[in-house]
Specification:
The protein has 139 residues and is of the alpha+beta class. The protein has a domain of 71 residues: Nucleotidyltransferase, domain 5 (2-Layer Sandwich), CATH 3.30.420.270. Helices cover 33% and strands 12% of the residues. The protein is built from 4 helices and 4 strands; from the N terminus they run ααβββαβα. It has a 4-stranded mixed β-sheet with strand order 3-2-1-4, with helices on one face. A hairpin with a 5-residue loop joins strand 1 and strand 2. Helix 3 packs across helix 4. The chain is elongated and about 115 Å long. 10% of the residues are buried. The mean pLDDT is 78. This is ExbD/TolR family protein. InterPro entries: ExbD. Keywords: Cell membrane, Membrane, Protein transport, Transmembrane, Transmembrane helix, Transport. Its main location: membrane. It is found in: Cell membrane.
Length: 139
């Protein structure tokens, strides 16, 4: 009878394969990481000119389509019925082909009124993207 307990074999962890996996992960992370460079090497202040680029300094004149707080629609300051707005815009476009429009709406203007104005613009041949909305800055 054997009274000595049997020694269990010590489990071995294959460390070589773990090192291989760690090296592969390190290569993967280095290869897929994006390194950002600071693009501004030299900080400079650009000069300004009053004579060059004079065209950009002149603001372009646009004809305004306005909606006031009483939900009245105006084309270039003249009151217009909403049903006649598309015809008036077409007539303006024929009289002055290079005319650009802008939309000025009061803060209390109803969304339904704006949608009807946009429909009139589309009917007159203007894209909504071509008619910017002017927002007044708070003073």
């Amino acid at each position: 009878m054997n009274l000595r307990p049997k020694r269990r074999p010590v489990p071995m962890i294959p460390i070589v394969s773990l090192i291989d996996i760690m090296v592969i992960l390190l290569i993967f992370f280095v290869a897929t990481t994006t390194f950002k460079k600071d693009k501004t090497q030299v900080k400079i202040t650009l000069p300004e000119s009053k004579s060059l680029g004079g065209e950009a300094a002149v603001p372009e004149v646009r004809v305004a389509i306005s909606i006031d707080d009483k939900q009245q629609v105006f084309l270039d300051g003249q009151p217009v019925e909403l049903e006649q707005l598309a015809q008036m815009i077409k007539a303006l476009k024929e009289a002055k082909p290079g005319t650009k429009l802008e939309l000025q709406a009061d803060t209390t203007a109803a969304l339904g009124k704006l949608v009807k104005v946009w429909d009139a613009l589309r009917e007159a041949g203007y894209s909504i993207n071509d008619v910017p909305a002017r927002i007044q800055r708070a003073q």
